[in-house]
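TASK: fixed-backbone design
INPUT:
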């Protein structure tokens, strides 16, 4: 199974890039994570809805055929780490790859959200894009560690 992080935003601070890279490297081969940076739309004179629509098209363009789409959205369902681990186990059992989409500054377009198999929220707090990527990578590793009975996670 492969997990894709489809993230709108192409320039992360060095600290965030290093953290994401570290957690991605920790994942086992049978559940590898690939981060796909998607170029954000230029804001000049465009409405937020138009920007989201153009970015959604780029996200969908990077979505492999047969891959389950999970949208990360502030209005999505909040899950605990244990619940994320259960989702990860369910996804693994489905035999399909999973793409987790992180929107740009304006979020994800409504049609993309509607197309997603699930909508999850990392937090009700507004997170900077770089931090959202780090948080997602760390939580995927933590969820895997629970499934593998690895001592990384402590309740």
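OUTPUT:
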């Amino acid at each position: 199974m492969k997990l894709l992080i489809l993230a709108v935003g192409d320039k992360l601070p060095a600290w965030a890039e290093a953290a994401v890279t570290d957690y991605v490297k920790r994942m086992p081969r049978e559940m590898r994570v690939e981060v796909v940076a998607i170029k954000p739309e230029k804001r000049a004179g465009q409405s937020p809805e138009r920007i989201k629509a153009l970015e959604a098209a780029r996200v969908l363009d990077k979505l492999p055929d047969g891959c389950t789409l999970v949208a990360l959205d502030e209005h999505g369902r909040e899950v605990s780490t244990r619940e994320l681990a259960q989702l990860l186990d369910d996804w693994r059992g489905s035999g399909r790859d999973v793409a987790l989409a992180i929107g740009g500054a304006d979020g994800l377009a409504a049609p993309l959200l509607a197309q997603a198999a699930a909508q999850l929220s990392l937090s009700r707090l507004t997170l900077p894009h770089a931090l959202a990527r780090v948080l997602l990578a760390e939580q995927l590793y933590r969820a895997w560690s629970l499934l593998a009975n690895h001592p990384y996670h402590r309740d």
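COMMENT: The mean pLDDT is 94.
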